[in-house]
Amino acid sequence: MGISKSISARSPRKKSTTLIIGGGLIGSSVAMHLARMGVRDICVVDFDLEGSLSSSELNAGGVRATWGQPINIRMSQISIDYFASVAEEVGYRPCGYLWLKTPETMPAALKARDLQQSLGWEVQAWDVAELRRRVPFIDKTDDLAGAVFAPRDGLVNPNLLKNHYRAKARELGVVFEDRTWVMGGAPHSGGWKVEARQLHSPAFHEAKLAVFAGLPEMEGLPWTDVSFDADRVINCAGPWAPKIAAALGYVCPSHPVRRQVCIFDSRGVDLTPYGMVVDPSGVYFHPEATNGLAGFATPDEPAGVNYEYDGERFFEESIWPALYERSTGFEQLKHLTGWAGLYEVSPDESAIIGPVVGELGAERTGLYEAHSFSGHGAMHSYAAGLLLAEKIVKGRYETLDASCFAASRFARGELLREHAVI
Ligand SMILES: Cc1cc2nc3c(=O)[nH]c(=O)nc-3n(C[C@H](O)[C@H](O)[C@H](O)COP(=O)(O)OP(=O)(O)OC[C@H]3O[C@@H](n4cnc5c(N)ncnc54)[C@H](O)[C@@H]3O)c2cc1C
Fold first, then answer.
1. Is residue 191 domain-resident?
2. Atom 51 of ligand 1 has which residue's CA nearest to it?
3. Residue 79: inside a domain, yes or no?
4. Which residues does a 6 A CB cutoff place in the pocket of ligand 1?
5. Does residue 378 lie in a domain region?
6. Of 43, 160, 168, 299, whose Cβ has the fewest other Cβ atoms within 10 Å?
7. Same domain, yes or no: 351 and 249
8. Using CA atoms, how far apart are residues 356 and 192, in angstroms rounded to an integer?
9. CA–CA separation, 194 vs 248, rounded Å?
10. Rounded to the nearest whole angstrom, what is the distance from the C-alpha of residue 61 to the centroid of ligand 1?
11. pTM over cut 0.70
């Protein structure tokens, strides 16, 4: 993506102190926290605030502190504590994450449990008898050594959460500009000038797909040019963050990857008393109203923007075999529907947060980023917004030292390799 043509003198110019590119869970959380810390004239721009192709709309809603990296555990704890404080508004349910473990994987799970408990997160270890007593529908357990269960992990409603952040931000004067597609930007008069195109009426699904996939059809839409002057710009563009980075003149090492989830009729197995279950195969599932929702990260999925859902084939090949092997009650499952969304994956599968750093290691004035959550941005969204806002407003991280999330870690070889990604 580049600046395809210069903005004419007659293009509307809008001014703000802070321009946030992307109004998903992360951009909305950053906006809320900055506004709470007293920043005024914040503008969030997004091509589709409804978010029908955004990761914030297409995710599984799992929230957990059962991570391998201490920083990821703490990010979840801070976020989940907040979700618990507004539980009804954001649909948080502490229904737990249950990780089923084989004899090969149980020792590492117990080691991770020691770390999680040392940081104050309760994680129980169950043997197979305890597992079968607590979760009777899991009755095919010959390959298992037991399970670990974290009772405060659970689920949120990501849509309610996003709207919660936005409502709080709007109360403090944050403006959200819809149907605005950012094209490029450059330093200008001590701040930034960002160039974009706007549509005046809502785009249909096909038009959204064309824009997000960068197809030639997007050129035929009735665009109006617009530019934004801001003291600072924050890249919160989720799976499109690498494109926005290129458009702002820096390199982001992440990439988008398709991830699919499906809804199935659980045919007599009542999943509603349970939370998220993670099978050793990598298949995860949880109750979704009276049905089940299941997902699996296909290992050989190529990088790129792809919203094609494989339908029945995804369920038959990637989900059902693992569930069949776990419960006699699952032998009759029926696929109902599903969808594909995008993970925004960094090289070590941990987030990128902080001031953007240039080639020589110096912070680029007025340029920040928060993206590449690699499949766990919903659960880290509150803490990510809080920490980035602290860095911007107070010049330092106060709640938690998040400097390890800086993208410069890749050049230094100080990776935050996270193994507990699903
Ligand atoms: C199938 C699936 C399951 C998942 N499950 C979980 C889970 O259980 N728990 C969890 O915590 N996380 C999960 N995630 C990950 C989580 O959804 C993401 O990490 C999180 O939503 C990222 O939020 P975001 O705001 O960074 O990105 P997004 O929500 O994608 O927002 C980015 C925004 O940027 C806008 N944008 C992009 N480019 C431009 C441009 N040029 N101009 C203007 N606007 C632009 C887009 O319109 C979009 O609204 C899952 C993701 C998927 C796909």
1. yes
2. 59
3. no
4. 21-27, 45-48, 51, 54-56, 58-62, 180-182, 236-240, 244, 259, 261, 295, 341-343, 371, 373, 375-379
5. yes
6. 299
7. yes
8. 14
9. 8
10. 12
11. yes
